[in-house]
Amino acid sequence: MERKYCLLIGISIFAVCDFWSGTGFNATGQQPTPDLPWGNPLKADGSGTGGPNWVHYITNTYNDSLVLTYNYAAGGAYIDPEGRTGEHQKLQQQILVDFTQTQWTADTSLFLIWAGVNDVIETSDEREFEEKFKELRKLLDHLHNIGARNFLLFNTAPLDRSPRGYAEANKSWIHQIQPWNENITHVAKLDKDASMFLFDTHKLFGNVMDDPSILEESAGFKNVTGFCPSCE
C-alpha cells in the first residue's frame, strides 16, 4: 500500500473551545506508523470535549488510503511579522524547526496550513496584516524551495458569530475577518508551480450555523451561538 503523508502546520483557535487543530503531537516522539497514523500521543484527544478532533478524522476515518499525519499545530499559534522562531506558538517555529525532523516525499505530501484566528483577534488594524502575509509568503516559499508542491490553505471561520464574537461585537477585531480572508484567498492564487487549494472554512461554518441539519455530522447540534459546557 502506497503511503501518503499529511503534514499539518498551523493552528486554528475558535473561541468556542481551545484546540481545533492541535493534538499534542511531539516532533521528537513516536512518529506516525500504519498502526498509529498520527504518531503521538497514543490517545486521540484533541477536541474541547476530550475526544478526536478533525485531524484524527481526516487521518483515520474520512479517507480510503493510508495517511500518516504529522501535526505540528499548537494552541495560541500566530504568524510573527518579525519572522522569529523560539516559541512553539509561532508558525515560524512549526515550519522552520519542528518540521525539519520529518521525512517526506513531495509527490505524496500535502501541507495543510490553518492560521489566522489569533492573528485576527489580536489585531486592531488590518494594515498590520501586510507584514504578517509577507512572512507567510516567506514560509510558503521556504516549503516550496525544499520541495513541497501540494498545499491546502484554510481561511478563518466566522469568529464574529462565536460566543466571544457576540460578547465583543464592538471590538475592532470583528471587522478584520473579511480582510484576513481576502488576503488568504490572494495568497492561494499566487503559486503557479504548485497545487495550491483553499478550503472555505468561513462558508462551511456559516452554513452549519445557519442550519446544522445540512450535514449528518452536525445535525444533532442544538446550540450554535453559546459556549460548549465542556469548554467553559
Automatic annotation (TrEMBL):
Keyword Hydrolase found: yes
UniProt cross-references to InterPro entries, sorted A to Z: GDSL, GDSL_Est/Lipase, SGNH_hydro_sf
Signal peptide limits: 1-22
Alphabetized Pfam families for the sequence: Lipase_GDSL
SUPFAM superfamilies: SGNH hydrolase
Membrane-spanning intervals of the chain: none
Keyword Signal attached: yes
Keywords: Hydrolase, Signal
GO MF terms, alphabetically ordered: hydrolase activity, acting on ester bonds
Protein name per the record: SGNH hydrolase-type esterase domain-containing protein
Lineage of origin: Eukaryota, Fungi, Dikarya, Ascomycota, Pezizomycotina
